[in-house]
Amino acid sequence: MTLDQLTTLAAGTVTATQRSLPPPLRPLAAAVPVHYEALPHADLLAEGFPADILGLFTGSPHGTELTHDQPAPPQILLYLENLWDYADCDPGYFRDEVRLTYLHELGHYFGWDEDQLANRGLE
Which CATH architecture has domain 3-119? Predict the structure, then answer.
């Protein structure tokens, strides 16, 4: 599948996932840009992130001010080739993994740590 096809499939999945959220969370989720990238950049890998990372939340969590050490606005990055590989090139499994990864990263935007995400089934 091409990167354009993966992007279309992932974007549709994220939109459907946002629509399925409880009404009070929908505008919060829609306010966080989602970027679709093929693979993580070299500078991210140099920071120690694994090459097979599926997604990443960057920026300040909801309800916190931008700080000097975190001046960027919040965003979610989804690494489509890694998700595709993780899904064994199965479109249905890919959509499931995009949904789970998006919700996991959105949880970080809400300020949830790894334990809180795991308790919600978003590990």
Answer: 2-Layer Sandwich (3.30)
